[in-house]
Design brief:
- Keywords: TPR repeat.
- InterPro entries: TPR-like_helical_dom_sf, TPR_rpt.
- This is Tetratricopeptide repeat-containing protein.
- By secondary structure, the protein is mainly alpha-helical.
- It folds into two domains: about 130 residues, Tetratricopeptide repeat domain (Serine Threonine Protein Phosphatase 5, Tetratricopeptide repeat, Alpha Horseshoe); about 130 residues, Alpha Horseshoe (Serine Threonine Protein Phosphatase 5, Tetratricopeptide repeat), CATH 1.25.40.
- The protein is about 65% helix and about 0% strand.
- The radius of gyration is 21 Å and the shape is globular.
Length: about 280
């Protein structure tokens, strides 16, 4: 079903354009958030519209790229209900099978990957990681390129100096050290593990300075790093920044992820307002 309200169509197209600009900058964390904003603009029931399939599919794929597998699974499940009149050759089942695989739910992974294989005649597996063809073996192949030793040592030295300055509550000076270290990373910076903790360290200093807008952007940058979505601290601070900016729905999402990753303990040293807010909105 197509959307008929021209105002909604225009609004969604505008958000899509903003999202594409973020994609071109390889800013996948903000890209996913922007696509979710487009989803929120769909009329209810959202799943009946043609655009719902493309949005849910792209959001799930983006979370796969970000290695935020719980979010990927949530959207891959949503995808199964989208645009029910649409003909497809196993694409939606393949994405859901991958999502179950990445979340280590192997029985369901096998079920949906098998459906995808039959419906597509194997087409959907072309170019995909071969580990999905070995669902029972749980095959994984992870290679991590290491930074050149000289650059690594410089980044370590600057980061240690930044940590000392942070402990002294000299946030501006610490921020300068972390920023200098970040600039030493080879491009594309987001592909290095160090980018996650350097962006997070920068964001932490901005948070303590009360510059919540800058801190929010830094933690979104941190989320673009390898496996960053599974780091409780990054989710926590981003949620806290969003809370301070009155973006409560986004804040709730990230605070809940922090809680799911590390439990209530992660809130123990934080202002009680954040955990109180989470408890007021979610039954823990």
């Amino acid at each position: 079903m197509e959307i008929t309200d021209p105002k909604i169509i225009t609004a969604i197209e505008a958000v899509w354009q903003e999202a594409e600009m973020l994609f071109e900058k390889n800013d996948l964390a903000r890209y996913a958030q922007k696509l979710e904003e487009a989803w929120d603009l769909l009329p209810v029931p959202k799943q009946q519209y043609d655009d719902s399939f493309d949005l849910a599919f792209t959001i799930a794929e983006t979370y796969l790229e970000l290695k935020d597998f719980p979010a990927m699974l949530r959207w891959a499940k949503m995808l199964q209900q989208c645009d029910p009149e649409r003909d497809d050759d196993g694409d939606r089942e393949f994405l859901l099978g991958m999502a179950f695989f990445e979340n280590n739910v192997m029985t369901e992974a096998e079920q949906y990957l098998t459906i995808a294989m039959h419906k597509s005649g194997g087409r959907v597996f072309e170019g995909a990681d071969e580990k999905y063809l070995h669902v029972f073996k749980g095959l994984t192949a992870v290679t991590a390129e290491e930074l050149p030793e000289e650059i690594y040592q410089q980044i370590e030295s600057l980061s240690e100096a930044g940590n000392v300055l942070a402990e002294e509550e000299n946030y501006d000076a610490a921020l300068a050290k972390f920023s200098e270290a970040l600039q030493l990373l080879p491009d594309p910076k987001h592909e290095w593990e160090a980018s996650t903790w350097l962006h997070a360290s920068i964001g932490d200093m901005q948070f303590f300075k009360g510059d919540y807008i800058a801190a929010k952007h830094s933690f979104y940058d941190a989320l673009n790093g390898p496996d960053a979505a599974g780091i409780g601290f990054v989710q926590l601070r981003l949620g806290e920044c969003l809370f301070e900016l009155n973006e409560e729905e986004r804040s709730l999402e990230h605070l809940l992820r922090a809680y799911m990753l590390e439990g209530a303990e992660i809130f123990s040293a934080e202002d009680s307002r954040y955990f109180d807010f989470l408890k007021s909105r979610v039954e823990l």
